[in-house]
Amino acid sequence: MQGSGSVGLVTPQTAVFDTPIALSSGVVLPHYQLVYETYGTLNAEKSNAILICHALSGHHHVAGRYKETDKAAGWWDNMVGPGKPIDTNRFFVIGLNNLGGCHGSTGPSSIDPATGKPYGSSFPLVLVRDWVETQARLADQLGIYRFAAIIGGSLGGMQALRWTISYPERVRHALVIASAPKLTAQNIAFNDVARQAILTDPDFHGGDYYAHNTVPRRGLRLARMLGHITYLSDDGMGEKFGRLLRSGEYLYGYDVEFEIESYLRYQGDKFSDYFDANTYLLMTKALDYFDPARHYDGDLTEALRQAVAKFLVVSFTSDWRFSPARSREIVKALLDARKEVSYAEIESRHGHDAFLMEDAPYINIMRAYLNRVAAEINA
């Protein structure tokens, strides 16, 4: 086996679907495309495939670089690659940009063939169960019937959970990281405030800002700044920024004075340069609507009785957006449904973003569990 390294240079691929899909909202999308990347080699039995489901602002570029001069690698490059926990020497790994995204898959900023203009406000809302159906169709195109594992953090973990209910026979293992069985009222409230920042931006134009050659940048900046606060922990922010002043003195004004203000504005500006506001609205609404127990009289245990997968559930002590208590709800429901589940609660100062970090205990748990997955493939 090679040492721990990068998957190297990668190239996105596009899957086109001409079979209509009936979405949960009742809207039928006649055709669409999904952009995805793959790393590693699919074995002859097609039994070593792992699907990575992305979180709210994620996309298909999970690992590697597009060119040598790229400053940053894919968003989970520390987890995916040769010798890494999701080892591409052993697994065939798929990352995709979900339907409704803004990184190549069909979404609000895509051209509607019927009008020759961007879908904009006419693009339908999409639920997690719709994403899972489109992911299953992609797997069909690739000839993969059953995944060795489906892995996701945050909103990605919700997709992994949904897979085990919608397509139970197609998932051997589900790794649900920093996630929840549904949002709390507080989380829905945060999402609504973020959406209102976008919806009330004068440049939003009812979602059809493309025709006005503008973007609701101010609203998107504020939405990202608010969201980013919830992804970090109080201790983590205090440790990194404290009450540091950029100039060392109070300036008695409303411009940037504290280092944390500078950081948040930088994150907001950067995000507004590459992310689509309509996609942000759509993704946060998918989060709000996620509730797999809803069709089982609110009984999560009953919903998870459908699953045949084995589970790893991971939470982080400083994550107050999706607290460990929410992960324990999933674990309890799985145990009550007599499913096989392992649970790890990781000590971390990184808040919700911890699932993207390189905390050694977290990396070691992921490695150990995926070693087990690989051993089952080779048994």
From TrEMBL:
Q: Which InterPro entries match?
A: AB_hydrolase_1, AB_hydrolase_fold, HAT_MetX-like
What does the UniProt keyword field contain? Acyltransferase, Amino-acid biosynthesis, Cytoplasm, Methionine biosynthesis, Transferase
Q: In which pathway does it act?
A: Amino-acid biosynthesis; L-methionine biosynthesis via de novo pathway; O-succinyl-L-homoserine from L-homoserine: step 1/1
* Main location (coarse class): cytoplasm
Top-rank taxon of the source lineage equals Bacteria
Gene Ontology cellular-component terms for this entry are: cytoplasm
Which Pfam families has this protein been placed in? Answer: Abhydrolase_1
Q: Which PANTHER family match?
A: HOMOSERINE O-ACETYLTRANSFERASE
> What protein does this entry describe?
Homoserine O-succinyltransferase
